[in-house]
Amino acid sequence: MPTLFEPIQVGAYTLPNRIIMAPLTRSRANNPGRIPNELMIEYYRQRASAGLILTEATSVTPMGVGYPDTPGIWNDAQTEGWKPITEAVHAEGGRIFMQLWHVGRISDPTYLGGELPVAPSEIAAPGHVSHIRPYKPFVVPRALSLVEIKNLHTIYRRAAENAKTAGFDGVELHGANGYLFDQFLHESTNTRTDEYGGSIENRARFLLEIVDVLIDVWGADKVGVHLAPASDGAGLEDSNPEALFTYVAQQLSERHIAFIFAREDTKEEHTVGRLVRENFDGVYIANQGLDQTRAAMLLEHNRADAVSFGQLFIANPDLVERLQQGTELNQPNPETYYFNAEKGYTDYPFLADV
After folding, report:
1. DSSP three-state, residue 75
2. What is the pTM for the complete model shown?
């Protein structure tokens, strides 16, 4: 059976190992206009030994923003800001896909120039808006019109083209964690009565249409999709998640995309994620609180083709080398995950520095 350190073919690319860097929102893009900054160049360069880097979630439109200092990819200035990042990763022999993001209702007028956030239906998310104090509950979003949904095809096409111009190796569609596509998929957040609501086929239509847009720009072998089969984000519920995600996996398999990245607790023996794996012919990447032992077990028992680490990559820029050598890992400091410039971002030590 494969190990963490064996190569794997993922779509168009042969990765040197099966250790994927998860998308990690770090809120360091503090340039005006959500343009990537120089600190981000070093951050990604340091982690280029990953089999594949998936960037932090990157907004495709100003109306898709829901957090401070997260980067965008909707205009030329942002595109130019990403170029030195992809160049730095490639100079170190790495590969990097951009994760394309729209938060939908998980936002607030504070982040949207006073506008209401948009969603499939006028249903507020539970909880409060991230990083706004005092705590503020999520507002009731505005339901997208059919014209606006079709316009998002154009928005995602432009973002995908910008990612190509910026030098990325491919793109991953963020369809998880309670954000816009997850909101369309689930019954609790999608009560539409048009072709984007009701049946599983209708609720999955928007996600699959945008996947087709990305394939048209990039080719299927350079496109991945990020899913959360556990349906555990921001008030998501569905009467038949098994059928929902089986259908999505089958449709993505028919499109021959490079991979599905699935965030789900793999300690459970019977998960919806296993149905996704069984119904998808491409590479299946497992993610959620993994350590080296658990990750190796998933590969050994054929429950995943590759594995992804998030917090461990925050604290260990040379995570691949540390895992391969069995050396001690740096421990991440959650207090510096966001908004602290270099501290907790590019200053974690390498093995050579210890």
Report:
1. coil
2. 0.97
Handedness of CA 250, 219, 74, 311 (dihedral sign): positive
Cβ 52 vs Cβ 96: under 8 Å: yes
Beta bridge partners of 308: 20, 287
Q: Can you read off the two tokens belonging to residue 242?
A: 């098994």
The identity of residue 62, as a single letter, is P
From 179, 196, 247, 338, active-site residue: 179
Per residue in 221-248, pLDDT tens? 999 999 999 988 788 999 999 999 999 9
Q: Are strands 223-227 and 118-119 parallel, antiparallel or unpaired?
A: unpaired
What's the full length of the chain, in residues? 354
- CA dihedral sign, ordered 281, 287, 291, 294: negative
Identify whether the C-beta of residue 291 lies closer than 8 Å to the C-beta of residue 260: no
Annotation says 179 is catalytic:
yes
d(CA 311, CA 261): 16
Indicate the pLDDT class of residue 152, thresholds 50, 70 and 90: very high
User: For the segment 245-277, what is each residue's pLDDT rounded down to a tens digit?
Assistant: 999 999 999 999 999 999 998 887 778 999 999
Answer yes or no: are the C-beta atoms of 2 and 299 closer than 8 Å: yes
